[in-house]
Amino acid sequence: MKRKNKAGQLEYHLMMSPGIIFLIVFSFVPMFGILMAFQDYVPAKGIFGSAWVGLDNFKYMLEIPDSMKILRNTVVIALGKIIFGTIVPIIFALLLNEIRLKWAKKSIQTIVYLPNFLSWAVVAAVVINIFDYHGPVNQFLQFMGKDPTLFLASNNWFRQIIIGTDVWKGFGYGAIVYLAALTGIDPGLYEASSIDGASRFKQLIHITLPGILPTIMLISALNLGNILNAGFDQIFALYNPIVYETGDVIDTYVYRVGLLGQQYSFATAVGLLKSVVSLTLLLSANQLSIKLVKMRIF
Amino acid sequence: MKKFLLTALVLMMSVSVFTGCTKSAGSSEPKTTATSDELTPYGKYAETVTYTIGKSTPGIPKLPEGQSYENNAYTQYLKETLNVQSKDLFEAKSGDNYDQKVSMAVASGDLPDMMSVGADTLRQLVDNDMIADLTEVYKSSASDLVKEKYDSYNGRALEAATFDGKLMAMPSTSNANIPTMLWVRKDWLDKLGLAEPKTVADLEQILTAFIQKDPGGNGKGKTVGLALSKSIGGLYGSLFQADNIFATYHSFPRQWIEQDGQVVYGSLTDETKQGLGLLADWYKKGLIDPQMAVRDSIESLIISGEAGAFFGPWWSADYPLNDARRQNNSADWKPYIISEDGSGEITAYTQNPAAEFYVVRKGFEHPELLPKIASALNDKLVREDLNYQPVVDFITGGFDGGKPLGIGINFNDATGQMYKDLKAAVDGEKKVDTLTLDDRTSYNKIMEYLKDPEKADANQWSGYTSRMIGAKLMAETKVNEVNPVFFGQTKSMKLKWANLVKLEDETFLKIVTGQESLDYFDTFVSTWNKTGGNDITKEVAEAIKQK
Known about the structure:
The complex is a heterodimer of chains A (298) and B (547).
Chain A: H1 3-8, H2 10-28, E1 39-40, H3 46-49, E2 51-52, H4 56-63, H5 66-98, H6 102-113, H7 120-130, H8 136-143, H9 158-183, H10 187-195, H11 200-226, H12 232-238, H13 244-247, H14 250-260, H15 264-293
Antiparallel strand pairs in A: 1-2
Helix pairs in contact in A: 4-15, 5-9, 5-11, 6-9, 7-12, 9-11, 11-15, 14-15
Chain B: H1 2-13, E1 49-57, H2 73-82, E2 84-93, H3 96-108, E3 114-117, H4 119-127, H5 135-141, H6 144-151, H7 156-159, E4 162-163, E5 166-167, E6 170-173, E7 181-185, H8 186-192, H9 200-213, E8 224-227, H10 243-248, E9 256-259, E10 262-265, H11 270-284, H12 298-303, E11 307-312, H13 321-327, E12 333-336, E13 346-349, E14 354-360, H14 369-380, H15 389-396, H16 414-426, H17 437-451, H18 458-476, E15 479-482, H19 491-512, H20 520-546
Parallel strand pairs in B: 1-2, 8-11, 13-15
Antiparallel strand pairs in B: 3-14, 4-5, 6-14, 7-11, 7-12, 9-10
Signal peptide (chain B): 1-19
Keywords (chain B): Signal
Protein name (chain B): Extracellular solute-binding protein
């Protein structure tokens, strides 16, 4: 690179600096704390004063049956959110795109977009009420002559509710990007295809989807990086000891054991597990992407 | 970028480490220089004695303007009565911050003359011979009332601070909050023509009537019988626990108790299984909140008038029933003691009577100062000098953190005592200005309530119900106390306890709500033992033997 170019880049680097600083402060510096996973950490003694215990915390993690459960819950819920959180907004955007009434399109878009701005503490209260014994879902079941179920205390339903409500909350927001991508497709292609006699469905398969594919890949990649972080407040607001079996994920477990139970070192070791899962997911998604659509995520 | 990261790394690594060399604690025990008069609880020193302390401050500093931790109403009071002045060697927010400062002080050997420490640090200080033996000065310089207060715990309070027969610290006490009671909607009982409950069977009948007949008009199937916490039981003196039910089976969940000469964890016993069995049966019959597993706020269930009964301590009338009363002035909650046979006697486990320990540095010339200050603050100030104006202003102003040493010593039955004092004042047998400041506030509410109970507001109702009914019931009920034998933490607990607690929470809730059969309890016991419980039980037994 030539010197002249470098100088011209200074302002761009400056623009990047808040992001870089954020990354260093909140992502790199805390990595230092990973050391706690190999220690018997005592807050009063600090990282420098606490005794080293080698891999004891990891050994214990393998000993208890909980670890596998938590790992499985995390992966299942995360994958469910990635898959449905990608497909639903796309389908919704495609459907919305077919609506010809402009005002209806706009208002539907705005309404489904709203839940994204509510915090999970608020949405959870609504969800709890909806699935309440006396809530609408159970009233409908009773009307159909079925027994009411306490969905949020049922290991058969908890994951579905977690994934479902997460998708419900986010799909309006997710659809916006796809709607924007849809407007970017050259209308000439549609005209040409209709002259060639393509049906609406054929247009969808051969023009619309390929047209927004780069956007889909990009959004999926961005979601992937975050997905294991996204579960805590939602699950924390909705779970209870009965559904620990299917709903307890790494974040909630670390919170309970580490902060409430004050087992800082063990919780750090479990938290490290989360990073491993994240990295695995991300790398395999990249491989998958290269293989299937010949496109690199990073 | 690479360079930047390197710099950051070096910066992080170069955080300096303080390493302290432990000073050798004074090998010969210096004799106190106090005269025999100065050794009495309230003997005033001829010359001002300055002592250093480790000051634990409240989370939110709240001192009157112009006062400081070293110079405020309380230090002024001590200066006037004993001629002593505190100096803070360090000040730190109570909790982690304070504990950290204490650890630093212990590691460096630079201890303040007096400070408060936890049970673990106390043992460490004793082992390293860093604190003074208080056996003699406790005898000479603690007031009779302070001694009486400690003795009200049947020796359990001081025992926690005694090592090899020597008293090494003076503990703050945690007074009794038991028995917890059954609180029931009396207006619902009256409406359905039901008698007041005396036995567990009575309660079952009442709950059945509540959910079937819906006396509160909540709508079909919406009335909740018994409101119960997700933790089911084992939280001492707390709201919404089922400890009263468990105790009828002689079960004490979450407590280390002695059974047939062996230390056992109370959650694992057959008795606990029976207790869970009964609760599971009640849940199945719909007597217990069917949504307890997902219930967010039990308080709101009670405030909205949907629930008919719950277990709670004497102060339940203040919280959450004050709000319930505010919502509905005819919600007439009353406390009852229920037992297996209706005798009115009750079995309950006690809590750790010694919460924190106050120690004196070995080598401090005035070890008698700790019992003297403890006596001044916990006896003289609350009896003879009750109306000492600066302190009255300090308390009524809502300030906090003035006492140089926060040592609090109360009778085990402080609540019963409060009831007796208030009763005497209400009956005109005790002068109102001899009541403590807190009691005076309650007294006013009670008198207002008695003027016209029908028209009394929620605060007056709460003041009356908690103190004249709840506290009375607590003072007059005969309690067969079961004393747990261990409260501390062992080595393996540190790593494994939280998981065992999780297992326990999960199992109890699943059994009660019928997601697992009662037989699952046996699986729980064996899993509990296998995943660390066995080791911990052994360590606990070991720790008790050492004591």
